[in-house]
């Protein structure tokens, strides 16, 4: 779930007027600020969970999906009264995400307003307000679907990276192969977006395989550019003007 706030930060910054579709100095400052905030929050989160002040993590083993939802598995001795003794069976995997979100908001509140004040006094504040909306939503999603996300995270990352990659290219007016390649190579913003999708896609493959078979699974990383290449090669076949209704 560390990726989600960072991606949402960058998405909000990239789609906030007057930065929409541009890689200006102001937008670049906010992008870097978001990255620093998330890195600091993630580092602090690891240090604040057991073993404290160490870059290590001791977690209870996850054996089944029900471990994430102990609220629904309170014991009933002799099938009598229910004992409400719910504990976090996957500690600290559930708690640390909330800690991370709280620290992320704190880091953003300490760093972002200063940058907005000195570099973007008129429009930069919108990105802060956007984060104050999506962090509670992320926390709610984790509280309700934390177990499901734990088991399906690699698949979610891979599928969303493919969909987002296709959406990025779909917004281009000229869908010819030459135009798509040219806009990607010559525009630094487009190039960074495509490379970002590749990084996320590769991360999803590594999360899914855990590189259990180093040779084979490392070779799978060669498929990372495939969604972008596939879209560029097949975009011309999806032109609505070329569809026949008869």
From TrEMBL:
Which residue ranges traverse the bilayer?
Answer: 28-49, 98-119, 126-145, 151-171, 191-209, 215-233
What is this protein called in UniProt? Uncharacterized protein
Q: Could you tell me which Pfam families the record lists for this protein? A: JAMP
Give a Gene Ontology cellular component term annotated to this protein: membrane
Does Membrane show up as a keyword for this record? yes
GO terms in the biological process aspect are: ERAD pathway; response to unfolded protein
Q: Which domain of life is it from?
A: Eukaryota
Which keywords does the record carry?
Answer: Membrane, Transmembrane, Transmembrane helix
Lineage, uppermost ranks: Eukaryota, Metazoa, Ecdysozoa, Arthropoda, Hexapoda
Q: Which InterPro entries match?
A: JAMP
What GO MF terms are annotated?
ubiquitin protein ligase binding
């Amino acid at each position: 779930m560390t990726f989600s706030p960072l991606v949402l930060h960058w998405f909000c910054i990239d789609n906030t007027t007057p930065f929409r579709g541009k890689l200006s100095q102001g937008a670049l400052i906010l992008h870097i600020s978001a990255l620093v905030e998330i890195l600091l929050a993630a580092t602090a989160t690891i240090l604040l969970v057991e073993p404290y002040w160490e870059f290590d993590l001791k977690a209870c083993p996850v054996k089944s999906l029900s471990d994430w939802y102990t609220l629904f598995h309170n014991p009933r001795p002799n099938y009598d009264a229910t004992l409400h003794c719910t504990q976090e069976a996957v500690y600290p995997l559930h708690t640390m995400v909330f800690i991370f979100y709280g620290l992320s908001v704190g880091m953003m509140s300490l760093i972002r307003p200063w940058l907005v004040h000195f570099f973007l006094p008129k429009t930069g504040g919108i990105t802060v307000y956007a984060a104050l909306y999506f962090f509670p939503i992320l926390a709610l999603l984790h509280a309700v679907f934390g177990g499901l996300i734990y088991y399906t995270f690699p698949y979610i990352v891979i599928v969303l990276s493919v969909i987002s990659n296709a959406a990025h290219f779909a917004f281009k007016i000229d869908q010819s192969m030459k135009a798509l390649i040219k806009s990607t190579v010559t525009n630094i913003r487009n190039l960074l977006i495509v490379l970002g999708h590749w990084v996320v896609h590769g991360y999803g493959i590594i999360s899914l395989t855990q590189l259990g078979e180093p040779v084979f699974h490392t070779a799978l990383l060669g498929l990372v550019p495939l969604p972008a290449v596939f879209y560029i090669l097949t975009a011309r076949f999806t032109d609505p003007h070329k569809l026949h209704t008869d």
